[in-house]
Amino acid sequence: MATVKKDYKVIGSRPVRHDGVDKVTGKAIYSADFSISDLLHGKVLRSPVAHAVIKKIDTSKAEKLAGVRAIVTAKDFIGSSDKNIETAEDRNEGETTRLKYLRDNVLASDKLLYIGQPVAAVAATSSHIAEEAVSLIELEFETLEPVLNTTQGLNSKSIIHQELETKELGTKVPGKTNLAEHIQHKLGDPEEAFKHAEIIVERELTTETVHQGYIEPHAATASWSNDGRITVWCSTQGAFPARDTTADILGVPISQVKVVPLEIGGGFGGKIPVYLEPVAALLSRASGHPVKLVMSRKEVFECTGPTPGTLMRVKIGADKSGKFLAAQAHLEFEAGAFPGSPVAAGSYCVFAPYEIPNILIDGYDVIVNKAKTAAYRAPGATMAAFATETVIDEVAEKLQIDPAELRLINTAKKGTRRADGPVYPTIGCEEVIKTIKDSEHYNSPITEPHVGRGIAIGYWFNVGLESACTISLSKNGTINLIEGSTDIGGTRTSIAMQAAEVLGLLPEEVIPSVVDTDSIGFTSVTGGSRTTYATGWAAYEAAIDVKNQMITKVAGIWSIDADNVEFEDGVFFSKQDTELKMSFKELASKSGAPIVGRGSVSKGGMGAGGGSFAGAIVDVKIDPETGKTTVLRFTCVQDAGKAIYPSFVEGQMQGGSVQGIGWALNEEYFMTDDGRMTNSSLLDYRMPTSLDLPMIETIIVEVPSDGHPYGVRGVGEANIVSPPAAVANAIYHATGVRQSRLPMNPASITKGIQDHRSDILNSMNC
Amino acid sequence: MTQSKTYVRCVINGEDTEFLCEPRQSLLECLRDVLRLTGTKEGCNDGNCGACTIMLDDRIVTSCLVLGVEANGKTITTIEGMASPDGLHPVQQAFLEEAALQCGICTPGFLIASKALLDTNPNPTEEEIRFWLANNLCRCTGYDKIVRAVVKAGEKIREG
Amino acid sequence: MKPEGAELKWIDYSSPETLAEALTLLNEYQKDAGILAGGTDLIVKMRADRINPGQIIDIKSIPELNQVNINSNNDLTIGSAIPCYKIYNNSDIMDLRPELKDSASIIGGTQIQGRASFGGNICNAAPSADSVPLLISLGATCNVQSINGERTIALEDLFSGPGQTILEPNELLISITIPKKSDLSGANYIRFIPRNEMDIAVVGTGVSVTLSSNKKNFESVRVSLASVGPTPIFVEGIDKEVSGQEINDESIRVVSNMSKNASKPISDMRGTAEFRQHLCEVLTRRALITAIERAKEA
């Protein structure tokens, strides 16, 4: 394991990314750009109701339409649905998922569980014909009462899954229910500790459903050959997990499926699940042609997994000096139509930045008649932090302690134990808080009226998991680096740089390729902030392997022991005779067996490298008469361990911050009483535009992680966790009204001011 | 009336181009599916994300809301026409140097829109840039590096 | 079962080059016609399956719908198909009526403004239309023709319900005429949206004010509102209350409260009725203050 150095040749620089030219010239192929000869086009029939029993699916009229080549339903899956499967998301938890749940979310079998759930699909010679055919399919069903939030889920007599049993603290409990799981973490004796607290703040908060909002809708093309081989081309956050899940859903061995990942237009966790891939495969098998499906924006909003709405209660007790004595959280998260909300992750992160001796956390995974939720950038943590960080802000105010100082008093450190079990290795929480406290932004004066400043801290545990990498040395001294991590934000370059550093090469002398599932060893998701970390580690090891093979080769040429050969600054030399030296390029040009290095890593589940802490400082200006919030200034502070490519790290920090701002101010699903989303367009699902934001300042903190050769910590996710809470605190300091719901939109802010601070309105001039 | 395709003739990226399309096909669909110019992207199909931005005569438009048949006789520039054999346009180069793209799906739309801005206003303020680009959504970058790239490109272009 | 897709049904397309030809086609197709100017509302509604015209008539090649005309009296007539960007980039229009930029520069974003027209915005007849309140406050009239003849309609009389105008199926909006601007007058349109651009107005307010010759009193105030009723609302009776009154906080509030009381908003996903009523007062007050400042500078 390498010692983390202060000055590297390549690490920390900012080369032009390898896929950059293709992406700025329109040459890069994304999933909807892909085409192949003999292609048919598919469209999906989707449920019009939130909860019903399917009586009949009549495709006869649709089949007769000229141009229709195949229609499929759940009947076309191979083999029984009655078994359990381990999905990509299950890996962290040591859990499994019922195959029926996975299949029903791709094509419904016996019930309709949310508006938009896929029921049948058509392949035709044009997408226009396919869509017309879909409208000719007759679906008969018997409606049931829908369950649309956690309170209904926990109390309603309308049961969504008849066979579901609550997993109560690890054990299944018989009885009909919509509560999929109740988890609990406990440390010390919180009930007793609260009795000794000199100050207690307790709040109930809610957050609404929010979508990842990637600009590229899902698309997939599949071809099922006569030899049984299925090839899928798609945009995915993990070709291998997509392969495995697609194979399981279809009912075929994984060796029958090859997933070819195309460039991907954003994912943020939402492109880990498969939706269209198995459908395209079934249509291809039924029609004998390759079939392509592309989602509309409406389908993306209504039918793919958003992150859930929540109901939370957080309570913190402290002594007068500011020390947190006890903390309690009650987290109810909507799972959507199938189990698996991110409440577990939320429970790990809710008090993660703090050392608190007495903690009780209860988490509830509640089934509702909405689309099954999917991961969204640090899933579960952002909602939890909204609760904790606003409560802490209240504690700070009551104790008259500076908010950053209060967090420093209680900061988590190496050795701190979390309520859910893990003990922290080296982490950068204290450093992030100190950086906020000492920053120019935090210490700059606020001079305008109706302006407030808020801060918050957030954590994401990051995951390690598996990656593979091979490196082939070319005769001209360049290397081809083969890896399987789909590149959403420039990781093929950050991975290439780690190999380049080992071999004394420039980034442009590394040619990285992201390849399909037949061409590299198993590589887990591009997600969980693991890609630069784990696949970079695999590339590092592959490069070491190349270096060692080259040492053996040159030792042979010089007829000396390999132990006597060193490699530094791009040159191989003999330790004993410094006149014996050969450059990397020259050695590469020598004939002999090809030099191919490999790296293969398994870096554990959650907490890889200790995870990353990130904080936000935000200044907002409120128009008290309209509730309009203007973000005046925003600073993101994040511990990156070691920033391999600083521009990309800044980009992740800025992107997560802006998603957090949108989540804070305007993003939410508007749902009718019968479970329909009414704002399923980018007009009324309001993501921030360039005009809604200032520049996003970034401060990268580097507390190297234990173990990684370069001290890397994944940075993709932790930066979204703190912004909504920071904005809420800023709004409080601007208006004097505490916010307890996300989003904090103009109507709710205005109402808060009217109800609680009418003095502000009265003091305003005409 | 029989359902037949319409013949369209226009100039795309400086070249005379002809194609057949149904009147109901958008210009975006014609570019991507008929002409196989897939650099222009579909994000929403209702004019709200700007990923389908092209130059139509003298103005940037969202091609998802233009019918293919409306292109007849017009001059169109797409992302494929921005670079020349001599090299990338300064805006493209600036986006690379400033890391103003992450997933890249919104990038073609932003490049066309940014170039149109700099062609009419070579020295825009941050506010002017943000206002001009408000019809282009990016979910990855938070716009910071995009604004910096446009400023940098403007400097380069003014230097000549 | 209606699918969630975004494909259009079959359409036929024509692009007449003379007004006579267009009016003949429109008379033939009647309710099956869809008038295509910028397409930024028409195509969106067709994709959402809310309307299904089979005959698309592209009016962008018709001279009368694409002209700007200023008569000897300084009345301004703007062709109904002229896109927004041509309105705020036209120096003749901006010299005469700079306030038109308030509306033209906020309908959608830059790309939408490259196509969307005032005529389309008006005929789409959404209660939230951003061009309408300002034009009503300026006393704009609609010049309408069919093969049977022509007529002029005051803009505030054009709307009959959400998305509905009183135009016959064979009538075409040719242009909008804004009467000459009197000295000592100013106008402003502002709207409230949750973001800073791209949103549909939660509430929109167009205000036009004419001052007395000493610039201290109101002579006339016209206020029109978007998004607070089934159609754009023209607030009646303001002049009766404030004409001749001194301009001060109190008289300004009289106008803004009348505006609030004239509003009939509903609650929907873009805003509650309560919030919208509140905003009517706030926005009218602010737009009136700006209009007064502009009148004083004129």
Please tell me about this protein's structure.
The complex is a heterotrimer of chains A (766), B (160) and C (298). Chain A contains 22 helices and 31 strands. Among the domains of chain A are: 20-28 and 464-602, 2-Layer Sandwich (Aldehyde Oxidoreductase, domain 4), CATH 3.30.365.10; 380-463 and 607-759, Aldehyde oxidase/xanthine dehydrogenase, molybdopterin binding domain (Aldehyde Oxidoreductase, domain 4, 2-Layer Sandwich), CATH 3.30.365. Chain A is α+β, with helices and mostly antiparallel strands and 766 residues long. Helices cover 28% and strands 25% of the residues of chain A. The mean pLDDT of chain A is 95. The longest helix of chain A has 28 residues, at 531-558. Chain B is of the alpha+beta class. Chain B is 33% helix and 16% strand. Chain B has helices at residues 27-34, 90-97, 107-120, 126-132, 144-159; strands at 6-12, 15-21, 53-56, 59-62, 75-77. Chain B has a 5-stranded mixed beta sheet with strand order 2-1-5-3-4, sandwiched between helices. Chain C has 298 residues and is of the alpha+beta class. In chain C, 32% of the residues lie in helices and 23% in strands. Chain C is built from 11 helices and 14 strands. The N and C termini of chain C lie far apart (59 Å). The model of chain C has no long low-confidence stretch (mean pLDDT 95). The chains are: A alpha+beta (766), B alpha+beta (160), C alpha+beta (298). Chains in contact: A-B, A-C, B-C. The interface between A and B is large, with 57 and 57 residues.
The CATH class of the largest domain in chain B, by name, is Alpha Beta
CATH class categorisation of the largest domain in chain C: Alpha Beta
How many beta-strand runs of chain C?
A: 14
Strand content of chain B: 15-25%
Structural class of chain C: alpha+beta
The biggest sheet of chain B, with number of strands, parallel, antiparallel or mixed sense and barrel status, is: 5 strands, mixed
- Element pattern of chain C in H and E: EHEHEEEHHHHHHEEEEEEEEEHHH
The helix count of chain B comes to 5
The second-level CATH architecture of the largest domain in chain B is Roll
**Which percent range fits the helix content of chain B?**
25-40%
Quaternary arrangement of the chains shown?
heterotrimer
